[in-house]
Records
---
Amino acid sequence: MVTYEELLQRQIIKKIETVEKERYTSFHQMNYQIDIESAIKFLEIQNPKYTVVAGYYAMLNVTLWYFAKYFNLKISEEDTGVHTNCLIVLEKYVKEENLKQKIINLLEEAKKEFVSFTLLKKNKEETLSLMLQQSADKRKRYTYYSSNRDLPSVSNQLNEAKVFLENTVKPYLLIMEKLKC
């Protein structure tokens, strides 16, 4: 797997130019808000596929917004793709001491607010990157055909999409919005 340092070296992750920062952060902030609103509406009209897809994109865009706003990082779609690149950046930063305890505190707060929300027992801070990874996998499952797996029945898909939205997407957004450096 590609490392954070390799992405930096190849300028797939780079500092945002001052003139671009406001536009870039606004773009991702607006998109994650549109995505979560869309996910909620898709669930209301009983469309589990697009509930999952929009929910995942809300998570991806809030992560891109967060790293742009607080770390001046622009994460490119080049090479392994924005999804993988974003996950690599998140995996690196959740382990940094200045964020680790803040993340753990916010995870514990989310656990109180979202009844079915669960954390890793060890290395709790890694729950955040695991949530993004599993959400990307779920989006792929709902989007791409695989002979190795089947989608659940429509009623089970609706339930799964609802649980995903309530126990993964909403807590993740809450944590990223509250996580300050």
---
Amino acid sequence: MNAMIKNAWCSIAAVAAALLLQSAPLLPQTRTASGGWVEARGARVHVPDGWSYNQRLAAASGPINLTNFGGAYARGGLLPPDGAEIEVTSLPAPPNIVEYIKTELKSAKVDRLQEMAAGERSGIQASYVESISAGASLKTVVSYIVHGPILYKFYLSYWSGSRNEQGLAAAFEQVIKEAQLR
């Protein structure tokens, strides 16, 4: 009888340990590759100096996710102070890009849609600000670029009023300019 109870407790302990390990938050799977390239979803982009990319997302054919803080998000998955992220994704191009953008950003308070150009690339850009809490808001800039049958979306998100806003905008423009799209 003691052997059966011991085996039962060992099995329970093994299952509990497995569940604990599965529920533990995973460390960010980032790879610092400043000056390197990352490819996913039909886009190949240059990783700006001081930025890193989420290797796990790229390997799973997810969006390309670049951060200037090593992927170590603040509590609740928020960007840390002075943190920024660039995300690149793609989908089949919709028949009417402007209507698609208006639908996608319907709940956001978009400043305006405007034509954008980064090197030889052109498209439509939108920006909006989300209030997170009193005195804290997140700014997002989205560039929509149609290339053949594919719509590529480039997102830049950072805290409004960031002291490095111009540097972030320059890194974002450079990522778009140098992107290799299929």
---
Amino acid sequence: MTLDELVTRVSRDVPEAPLLLVKESLQRAQRQLAEDGNVWTERQSIAVTDGDPPFSEIIAQTADSEPVRVMQLSVDGSPIEFLQTEPGRLEFKRLPQSDPEVLLAIRPTTGTNLPEDLLAYWQDGLRHGALSELFMLPQSWQNPALHEYHQARFRDSLARARMIARGGYQSRGSRVRPRSFL
């Protein structure tokens, strides 16, 4: 799914809204979903600079994405302690023995979009986020009741995204097996 297809879908619900306004609302919903829901991640190896304290600059910012937060940081599969002072900078209490691997949550920069596979997966949540914003604007199509409805659905999508991120992006749910009491 592309952004143009999403714009068409949203504009069916608010036909009076200009297409540029619909597109900007969808882009804001994408940024919020990526920032609050951790839907776009990237794994990379980082170099640590010896200093007081040891630190690392994360090189994840590209023309279409920027780092939000570090979700995991490990050396050879073992987690290490760190302090994230800025979105692109980490400080360590101790100097790691080798270069750590980091799992970053990233978001699209202003005016850019999520990758198409993420747009397709989260299309319903993004639609609700954009419609929530559009129905709250002081225009002829303003509708506070529909704003509340779509805002609740968008919050549900954010919660689902956080749950998937916490579960390690597994395709299946986790199961808990009850103990047998004998």
---
Amino acid sequence: MFKELVTKISQNLVTAPERAARLILERGEVSDQLHRALDALKEHEARVAGEVAAARNGDGRPLYPNEQARQAEIHRRLQADGDYQALRQEADRLRQDLREIDAQIEHVSRGHRSDVAAANLVASLLGAGLREEALAALQAYVQGLAGQEKPAEAQAGTQPQEQAQADAQVRDADSALVEGT
């Protein structure tokens, strides 16, 4: 059990930088898409504003003589424009995608730092000859990781059988550490 826990943390240490790099590249792609969508929105707004400013009545005078009237007409036309609304929805979706990717990047980064700290703690404890403490620290860390993966509601409803299995794994790991495996 001890070996499996150390192996899992070691694998996380190796794969985290690659996961972060992939997410950063993905973020760049989504950011580029968002900027293109925002540029298209601005172009659309400028076109509609130009149309409103150029609108004339039968006498050749501006149809919308003051700024407030022009802004109101621009707003009305944009709200009625299906293409413009689709562009806004796309920009909103891309913004949400960026927030989610940023959260994933932060999660990977913090997880990596946490794994490094746990590995250093376990190594220090083992170096000091404190095998039981090292196992306890490792088990607490892994249990903490498992707790993060489940929603809080699911944690509160842990089944007795699942708890018994977790307790058995802890006992097995204790035995393995004491035996030196």
